[in-house]
Specification:
single chain; Quinone Oxidoreductase, Chain A, domain 1; Rossmann fold; seven-stranded mixed beta sheet; six-stranded parallel beta sheet; globular
Amino acid sequence: MTNAATLQAPAARPQTGGVAATMKALVYLGDGKKAFQAKAKPKIAVPTDAIVRMVKTTICGTDLHILKGDLPTAKPGLILGHEGVGVVDEVGPGVTSFKRGDRVLISCVTSCGACAYCRKLMFSHCVNGGWILGNLIDGTQAEFVRIPYADTSLYPILEGEDEEPLVLCSDILPTGFECGVLNGQVVPGSTVAIVGSGPIGLAALLTAQFYSPAEIIVIDLDEKRLGIAKKFGATSVINSTDGKAQDAVMRMTGKRGVDTVIEAVGVPATFELCEQIVAPGGRIANVGVHGKPVALHLEQLWDRNISITTRLVDTVSMPILLKMVRAKRIDPKRLITHHFKLDAVVDAYDTFGNADKTGALKVIVES
């Protein structure tokens, strides 16, 4: 792992002789195609921009959705990625909190800090930003990235701090925490079920333990991931391959159901399972990205006093999570299974995209 002293020294600026500087990046080419190729190095576009030299990034399930063509906002030619840590290479004249050479954590959500949504702490719906990195503008799976509204979209990394666990604070930890645990209103002594033990489900599992629920039941089809969930703190696990997960939950809870159920997959069958196992007065917190219609069985739920929440991560919990990581109350590195160099990012995608065979949870891609 690169040490802090090395990270403090910004990369030498290329001598271009009047020719535009270039860099290497992972580029979405449309129709499921991607390539690691040369792109123009980003420049300061407005005074509040910063250019960050990437040190470590990762791959998100949302990147796979883009490659499948599920997000029409992402156009061919886009550099993918919305997470990572790096070193500030250049700042615009409007940036006051950061300078060249600072080590920084990049938020997956860009916040202007001034619009009506930002004032409500709904950064994901910022009218000037939101989730734009690797979606509407070039992202972080590159040697350099332009960060709009740098003062409110970057977080400083402490001197000598291990940056690797912080990569997972860009997106996955706040997503599991905000969309699952906080929206699900997990409280001490409550019963929680997490449907899906992929990276997001495991992030919800780790952060749900902040609130000391009495039981955390994790449900999945993959026995290996259920084993990981057990190691990460699940009190019980259920393999739903036989289609009888509802019966198992009802046996465990005295036919009552669970107080909070977190949907962390994003397919109709798993959301409907959440509807079946939520207790009267309980909450269904949706985290998964749904690309198909889902049946809402109000004929069964209309009188049960339940709440259903949806959310795109706002990263408002970033300061809390950073404190918890620094206090060693949570160890995000437990989610990291593979490491790759940036020039092997295509291999990293193959590994991450075939997690059922490779056992991948989160991969780290290092520049």
